[in-house]
Amino acid sequence: MFVLKIMVETSARHIHLTQEDLDTLFGKDYKLTPKKDLSQVGQFACVEKVEVIGPKSSIKMSILGPVRPETQVELAKTEARSIGIDAPTRMSGDLKGTPGCKVIGPKGEITIDHGVIVAKRHAHFTPEQAVEYGVKDGQNIQIKLDYNERALIFGDVIARVSKTAGLAVHIDTDEANAAGLPGTVDGEVIL
Amino acid sequence: MFVLKIMVETSARHIHLTQEDLDTLFGKDYKLTPKKDLSQVGQFACVEKVEVIGPKSSIKMSILGPVRPETQVELAKTEARSIGIDAPTRMSGDLKGTPGCKVIGPKGEITIDHGVIVAKRHAHFTPEQAVEYGVKDGQNIQIKLDYNERALIFGDVIARVSKTAGLAVHIDTDEANAAGLPGTVDGEVIL
Fold first, then answer.
1. CB B152 to CB A150 under 8 A?
2. Is B114 on the interface with A (CB under 8 A)?
3. In chain B, what residues touch A174 (CB-CB under 8 Å)?
4. Which A positions 23-82 lie with beta carbon below 8 A of chain B?
């Protein structure tokens, strides 16, 4: 059988910020300091960190750049529970009705009334890669993994097709641990 | 198709203690206080809690009774990482070469040189249930789940057959979160 492989990356908890919120947290006209380019074209992990405060406790996380039109916190369910936030599983940007939190930076703090989510697992394809893999934007695919005696098949992986995509599946740390992943690995696409 | 269902329970982090370690932590000839019976015959969650100390931080957990021949800490990979312990994925009781930790109770503390594990996912059957489900002790089975837009199929689920079994699959909190489970659910056995 012909097997289509795809890189599976683990997204650690992180925050996306608007320029306005970045300014409040780090000072006026602040510019993020890129630390590492991500697989998605133009996206980067930053040196800067913030503290996200929930009703039970708080947790530090990195900022992902560049700035976005809306501030968004992405964390794993285990982490959300530990800080006392009942975050729903959503695709990035689908923030309506999600819980908020307080965020503290070195120069100030913000309170968002929504924007805290557990990211829904998804796979990025360019239009050309989507043709090659036989997937359509929004399609629900499966990814098979077999590592460290925790073999599993993730269903409900949403294909996202965009010109700036880097071919990769993104899962959170709970999912990576459930699959026993030692780091970035290759998975097998099942349609 | 004939579908075999099985209850899937999430094991939160916990510790099993020897009577000797229990005495050190809670006082001589201490008797555990049962809080809730578990699905496995004779096993119970206790009112008592201890603090497990790793190199990075510590975490509180309940004791599961009755006392055992060997002290064993079971926690999810996310939790092990957060306290700084690189715990391997093992079946309960398979503790050779596993890392240790310090444990603090109200009356004293112990240091174990091994016994910290991430539990390997498994399914309990009585001999009669094993026949009904068509599984053998030690067999690697799959469990299909479909909850909260995080459908998945867990592979590497080890069947354990014993007379005192309560029919159930046991997974940890990382696995439960990866599967979007709202609590105890039914899964589907795939052989």
1. no
2. no
3. 78, 173-174, 177-178
4. 76-79
pLDDT digits (tens, 9 = 90+) for B19-70: 999 999 999 999 999 999 999 999 999 999 999 999 999 999 999 999 999 9
Q: Give per-residue pLDDT as tens, B93-103.
A: 999 999 999 99
Q: How confident is the model at residue A2 (pLDDT cuts 50, 70, 90)?
A: confident
- Which ipTM value was assigned to this complex? 0.94
Q: Where are the domains of chain A?
A: 5-9+121-190, 12-117
**Residue A52 confidence (pLDDT):** 98
CATH of B5-9+121-190 given 2.60.40.1220, 2.40.110.10, 2.40.40.20, 3.10.180.10: 2.40.40.20
Portion 162-191 of B in contact with A at CB < 8 A: 171, 173-175, 177-180
DSSP letter for each residue of chain A = ---EEEEEEEE-SEEE--HHHHHHHH-TT----EEEE-SSTT-EEEEEEEEEE-SS-EEEEEEEES--SS-EEE--HHHHHHHT--PPEE-TT--TT---EEEE-SS-EEEESS-EEEEPPEEEE-HHHHHHHT--TT-EEEEEE--TT--EEEEEEEEEE-TT--SEEEEEHHHHHHTT--SSEEEEEE-
State whether residue A102 sits within 8 Å of chain B by CB. no
